[in-house]
Amino acid sequence: MPNPDDPLYAELEAALDSAENEAAKYHIRQALQIRIAEETAGKDLLSA
């Protein structure tokens, strides 16, 4: 479950709300999924 107090999660949610096209929304959703997976795994997946 995502942590709504996480500043990056909050930024991504705000970006999703203000995205102007579907391509931008797609990439923001991908970043959100990665962030949620990182929190679940307890580590930074992209730097592994």
TrEMBL record:
This is Uncharacterized protein. It comes from Haloarcula salina.
